Amino acid sequence: MALELLTLANPVFKSYAFWSGVLVLKMFVMSLLTAIQRFKTKTFANPEDLMSPKLKVKFDDPNVERVRRAHRNDLENILPFFIIGLLYTLTNPAAFLAINLFRAVAIGRIVHTLVYAVVVVPQPARALAFFVALGASIYMALQVVLVAL
C-alpha cells in the first residue's frame, strides 16, 4: 500500500514531487543571488575571489548578508518540508488538502524570499509568508504524528 502512494499516479505524491523540485530550484537560485550581490557590491569572503588588488576581504555588506540570511532561512524551513511532506504523503491524505498544503509551503517560501531578499518590503509581508509556510508544515507534521500513534 505505501509503495502505491509513492508513484506519480498518486496526485498527492505527484504534487509533492513537483513542489519539492520547485523548492530545490529556488534554493539553487539563492546561491546565484548571493553571487550576484557579491559581484554587485564587490564584497568577497575569500582572498582568491578578489578581482583587484585594491579590494579587501569583506564580510559585512548588508545586501549580501540579507540574501545569505534568506538562504539560511530556506535551509531551516525547506529541508524539514522535504521530510514531512513525504511522510505526510504516506498518510494517504485527501488530495485537495495535501496539494494545497504543498502549494502553500512553496509559494510562501518563494514570497518570503521575494519580499526579504529581492524587493525589500516592510513587515508584515515577510512574516505572513513565513507563517503560511510554517503553519502548513506544522499541520502536516501533526497529522503524521497522529496517524503514526
Strand composition percent = under 5%
The number of domains is 1
Look at the helices and sheets and give the structural class: mainly alpha
CATH architecture: Up-down Bundle
InterPro entries: MAPEG-like_dom_sf, Membr-assoc_MAPEG, MGST1-like
GO molecular function: glutathione transferase activity
Subcellular location: Endoplasmic reticulum membrane; Mitochondrion outer membrane
Keywords: Acetylation, Endoplasmic reticulum, Membrane, Mitochondrion, Mitochondrion outer membrane, Transferase, Transmembrane, Transmembrane helix
Ordered list of secondary-structure elements with their pairings:
Elements: H1 2-5, H2 11-41, H3 62-89, H4 95-118, H5 125-148
Explain how this protein is built:
The mean pLDDT is 92. Helix content is 74%, strand content 0%. The chain has 149 residues and is mainly alpha-helical. Helix 2 packs parallel to helix 4 (95-118), helix 3 (62-89) packs antiparallel against helix 4 and helix 4 (95-118) packs antiparallel against helix 5 (125-148). The protein has a single domain (2-148), classed as Membrane associated eicosanoid/glutathione metabolism-like domain (Four Helix Bundle (Hemerythrin (Met), subunit A)). The chain has five helices and no strands. The two termini are 18 Å apart. Keywords: Acetylation, Endoplasmic reticulum, Membrane, Mitochondrion, Mitochondrion outer membrane, Transferase, Transmembrane, Transmembrane helix. One of its GO terms (molecular function) is glutathione transferase activity. Conjugation of reduced glutathione to a wide number of exogenous and endogenous hydrophobic electrophiles. This is Microsomal glutathione S-transferase 1.
